[in-house]
Design goal:
By secondary structure, the protein is an alpha/beta fold. It has helices at residues 17-28, 35-43, 47-70, 88-97, 107-114, 129-147, 159-171, and strands spanning 7-10, 31-34, 76-79, 99-104, 150-153. It is built from 7 helices and 5 strands, in the order βαβααβαβααβα. It catalyses: shikimate + ATP = 3-phosphoshikimate + ADP + H(+).
């Protein structure tokens, strides 16, 4: 991969987008961004607070702006929020400006990876986490599939192993 094209990681919460993104950026010597962290940095508040105050729609509006700005950069790895694909504008931007990699995981692995995480606003409800994750998968998985250039199952692999798999895929391009 002579030219450093943008790499965008999409997938559900708990798929490993941020962890794998950091690994990938280190191995490829590319700059790493996490859209959720960027929103937190710009607002000075955590994602849960933004959700509480502005609602999901307000958060998603911020997300569109951040994704638009970040994807204009060259040679970056971007870990997106799990719901970023809900907005057609984000899907179009991601598809047009880089290589989109769908990090796929099972509901069981998501439950395991997120069980102690209190920073995920969609899991802070009276509905069981399994039900929430199943509903999100039903809504979002087709959207991930729609824009993915590649799909990688992350369940039984380390972040480093997934990063190497991605690099191998990119070298074949």
């Amino acid at each position: 991969m002579a030219e450093k094209r943008n790499i965008f990681l999409i997938g559900p919460m708990g798929a490993g987008k941020s962890t794998i993104g950091r690994q990938l950026s280190q191995q490829l010597n590319m700059e790493f961004f996490d859209s959720d962290q960027e929103i937190e940095k710009r607002t000075g508040a955590n994602i849960s607070w933004v959700f509480d105050v502005e609602g999901e729609h307000g958060f998603r509006q911020r997300e569109v702006k951040v994704i638009d700005e970040l994807t204009k950069k060259q040679g970056i790895v971007l870990a997106t929020g799990g719901g970023s694909v809900k907005f057609k504008e984000n899907r179009n931007i991601l598809s047009a400006r880089g290589i989109v990699i769908y990090l796929e995981t099972t509901i069981e692995k998501q439950l395991s990876r997120t069980k102690r995480d209190k920073k995920r606003p969609l899991l802070q409800s009276n509905i069981s986490n399994r039900t929430v994750l199943e509903n999100l998968a039903y809504e979002r998985n087709p959207l991930y599939e729609e824009i993915a250039d590649f799909k990688i199952q992350t369940d039984n692999q380390s972040a480093k192993s997934v990063a190497y798999s991605i690099i191998h895929l990119l070298e074949k391009m």
